[in-house]
Amino acid sequence: MSQSRPILYTYFRSSCSARVRIALSYKNIEYESRAVNLQKGEHTSDDYTELNPGKLLPYLVIDGNGLSQSIAILEYLEEVYPDKPLLPKDPGQRAQVRTIVNAISCDIQPLQNMRVLLALPEEQRAGYARKIISAGLAVVERMLEKTAGDFCVGNHVTMADCCLIPQLYNARRFDVDLSAMPHIRAIEERANALEAFRCAHWSRQPDCPVDLLSSANM
User: Where is the GST C-terminal domain (predicted)?
Assistant: First the structure.
């Protein structure tokens, strides 16, 4: 395995990037962060496109591999860096984790990401994002009624938590009402007490604009 420090191409407000930041920090994998500004279109530059033809974030260079798609990255980290596992040993619980992961990464995030919102008239964007996130998190809350302990599945941090907490960044950004989601709010509170989640928060990224820090929910 290569001993060079991994490089994570990231953007402070990218919830997909935050999933990987959490996992890297939780597993105590030191990495170099390289900011790619989505608002300025840096993800469409020739240099970044050559690196990642999908023009998306995150992108992780690790162990001689260049990896895109956050869930594939999480799976790689779990297989190659098994200390502090993010998947339970029990097959049923592993499936529950992946079910919640997919509910967030397939059914919520892609429908409210920047590419989708920019296709809408500006006055419709916030309301649309709020509707999509609220409906999706309501489904997740119902799942958590059956699976949650201290965290999404049982009492240990899993990939599901790595996906849920960044989705809540977007929920709060678009003023989603979480009052009827007690499991989600309790898990968020426990996660935010852990340094791996705290250091991955968008407000603690080097590329976070200073003028946004007052709105940070930490």
Answer: 90-210
